[in-house]
Amino acid sequence: MRIENATFVxxxxxxxxxxxxxxxxxxxxxxxxxxxxxxxxQDQARRLGDAAIAVQGDVTxxxxxxxxxxAAQAHGDGLAGVIHCAGVVSxxxxxxxxxxxxxxxxxxxxxxxxxxxxxxxxxxxxxxxxQNPPGDDGERGVIINIASVAAFDGQVGQCAYxxxxxxxxxxxxxxxxxxxxxxxxxxAIAPGVFETPMMADIPEDAVAALSxxxxxxxxxxxxxxxxxxxxxxxxxxxxxGEVIRLDGGIRMQ
Length: 253
Description:
This is 3-hydroxyacyl-CoA dehydrogenase. By secondary structure, this protein is α/β, with parallel strands linked by helices. It has helices at residues 16-27, 40-48, 62-75, 104-129, 150-153, 159-179, 204-213, 223-235; strands spanning 7-11, 31-36, 52-56, 81-84, 141-146, 184-191, 243-246.
């Protein structure tokens, strides 16, 4: 698949990994529709110029995401792909220090956004891309979801987050198998610790410890390194039905 003159939806595009993906695809000649709940996504689209538009939306809303898909189809010659970066991080122990059980609504919210939201974006994007004329190898589109190393190495307090990201991992292969008849590929990236706004709330000593836990290179990942992998997935049609860890070799304890 070629990026030049193709249109891609990027969720969670207001900052961090999604923002980096938008910058890289526009630099490669692509068009992007940026989706985020934050109003800052509008500023991001303006910075990227005419190749970018922004549509605020909630990934768990069928109406919101259909509006994003419709905007993408109007922004170019059909929707070529989706990079789904939207999600939340949550930390809560099953039983706290006072013996109280974890909040069930908080657990459900994490799963709703990270897992149900991913399914929502994937189903609506796939329906649109299935109508595209086939390109090389009969390809009609590509979906890239974001998982996490927590899907495999969940830490204490990450039952909700790890379960939601493990669900994204679990959907990757069956979705790729199902959508193969439409010429649509499905991939997932499982990043480790990256320099994103979510990391800004973590104390410096904790960030330093996380950096030292990475075998090599001993630092946090950079958003553009994630975006470069997403670009490679888009352009390499043999990448399908797989989850790629992008983590410097870290295994969380």
